[in-house]
């Protein structure tokens, strides 16, 4: 794949899907005057529980998708069809479970409004199967357009419905939650055509119980791994709701976290675009190339987080027309560094996925996720929502310590990184990056522009000096 192709795919996976995010950003000055921290609190708690079951419902079966694509290139659709049916059934079950839990959690209780809100909020669980398969198949066949433009169209439709409900009808959290409801229904319907018919992947009932059992033996250990992502991103809001933190404070945290999440967009898009190269270089034992790809992703993550952080006051001043929500700027400036270690996760997890050592994946995000819960339960009752900020950051960064305490990753990281102590250097750079960026937030505009161009120059220099174009 050429450098141009990598850039093009990164744009498709990173920039194009986020045009809906750009639309939502453009709408912020119009909608935030009619939203409250309470609205964001309801939205944050509901989406946290929904995300929890979205992560559980696939039952880890998506681990068979990428592997079967490489292992059975002519007949992978048969494996994917079996996975599709099992995910459709499990998502139905867990969607119903989510409705029941939300009825007991949200302050609306068992009212008609509460029931409707729970059903609408649970729709991403009921209809997750098609989107999950699409997220795997289109990057593997290097055809991003149908994936990203379908998701983009669905997201824009959701954003428009959300805008109308908030701006015109003044429905607050109903407007926030309706976006996911509309976009999920649209994308599920469209992917029936693209996935079921375009790739001949349709639900298949597998009568071979031994094969099904074997699939679950490999897949189920992945559930805690996938769940760990939600525990890292959403458990703080769940814990705060259980610790009787006000929905206004939860909303303040949720809004700051949403703004901070923009920092990981480019890194995750780059990692997705590079996934064929990541797979091939490791499978060919070309660890030098694998290492250089990691450092490329890590540098992009560091620079992206730095730049978003220093420009955060200007972003808030331009977009947020609500004094109560504007108080989350400091939260966003910290949380945009939380997932700066995403690149290390990608490159540590890829060998485990390839070798089907799914039990080892528990260390990467499930253990940090449990750490986040423990820290939140310990400190949120004492320090409120601000404790959740630092518990989230510490939990994410704890992934850097895994190669020093887990033998499997000690050997694996040493194999491709050469010296696992380089991770300590990465940690020191991350800490310095966070501290400098939070100080640089107060600099004059012209100095921020200088730092922005300097960051771009450093990335270009790194790209050329490490001869990354030869890998792409």
Task: Characterize the structure shown.
It is a single chain. The chain has 472 residues and is an all-alpha fold. It has 26 helices and no strands. The radius of gyration is 22 Å and the shape is globular. The termini are close together.
Radius of gyration: 22 Å
Q: Termini distance? A: 5 Å
Give the overall pLDDT as a whole number: 89
Outline the low-pLDDT stretches. none
Task: Please tally the helical runs, counting DSSP H or I stretches of 4 or more residues.
Answer: 26
Helix content: over 70%
Order of helices and strands: HHHHHHHHHHHHHHHHHHHHHHHHHH
Shape label: globular
Structural class: mainly alpha
- Biggest sheet details: none
Total count of strands = 0
Strand content: under 5%
């Amino acid at each position: 794949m050429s450098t141009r192709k990598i850039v093009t795919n990164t744009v498709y996976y990173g920039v194009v899907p986020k045009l809906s995010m750009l639309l939502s950003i453009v709408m912020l000055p119009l909608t935030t005057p009619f939203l409250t921290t309470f609205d964001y609190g309801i939205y944050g708690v509901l989406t946290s529980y929904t995300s929890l079951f979205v992560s559980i419902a696939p039952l880890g079966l998506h681990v068979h998708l990428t592997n079967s694509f490489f292992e059975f290139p002519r007949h992978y659709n048969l494996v994917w069809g079996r996975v599709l049916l099992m995910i459709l059934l499990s998502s139905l079950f867990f969607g119903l479970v989510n409705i029941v839990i939300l009825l007991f959690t949200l302050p609306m209780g068992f009212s008609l409004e509460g029931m409707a809100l729970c059903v609408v909020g649970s729709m991403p669980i009921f209809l997750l199967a098609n989107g999950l398969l699409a997220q795997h198949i289109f990057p593997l066949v290097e055809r991003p357009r149908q994936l990203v433009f379908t998701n983009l169209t669905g997201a824009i439709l959701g954003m428009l419905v959300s805008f109308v409900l908030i701006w015109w009808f003044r429905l607050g959290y109903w407007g926030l939650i309706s976006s996911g409801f509309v976009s999920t229904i649209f994308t599920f319907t469209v992917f029936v055509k693209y996935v079921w018919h375009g790739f001949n992947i349709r639900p298949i009932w597998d009568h071979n119980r031994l094969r099904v059992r074997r699939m679950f033996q490999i897949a189920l250990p992945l559930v805690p791994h996938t769940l760990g992502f939600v525990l890292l991103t959403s458990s703080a809001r769940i814990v705060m709701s259980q610790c009787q933190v006000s929905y206004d404070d939860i909303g303040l945290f949720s809004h700051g976290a949403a703004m901070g999440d923009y920092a990981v967009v480019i890194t995750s898009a780059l990692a997705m675009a590079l996934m064929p190269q990541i797979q091939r270089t490791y499978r060919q034992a070309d660890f030098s190339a694998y290492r250089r790809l990691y450092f490329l992703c890590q540098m992009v993550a560091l620079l992206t987080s730095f730049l978003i952080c220093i420009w955060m006051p200007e972003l808030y001043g331009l977009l947020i027309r609500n004094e109560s929500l504007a108080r989350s700027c400091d939260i966003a400036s910290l949380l945009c560094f939380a997932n700066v270690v995403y690149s290390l996760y990608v490159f540590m997890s890829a060998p485990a996925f390839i070798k089907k050592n799914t039990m080892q994946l528990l260390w990467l995000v499930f253990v940090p996720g449990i750490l986040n819960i423990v820290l939140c339960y310990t400190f949120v009752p004492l320090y409120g929502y601000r404790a959740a900020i630092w518990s989230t950051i510490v939990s994410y960064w704890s992934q850097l310590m895994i190669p020093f305490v887990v033998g499997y990753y000690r050997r694996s990281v040493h194999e491709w990184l050469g010296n696992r102590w380089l991770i300590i250097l990465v940690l020191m750079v991350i800490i310095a990056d966070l501290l400098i960026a939070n100080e640089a937030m107060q600099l004059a505009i012209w100095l921020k522009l200088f730092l922005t161009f300097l960051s771009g120059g450093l990335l270009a220099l790194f790209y050329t000096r490490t001869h990354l174009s030869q890998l792409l």
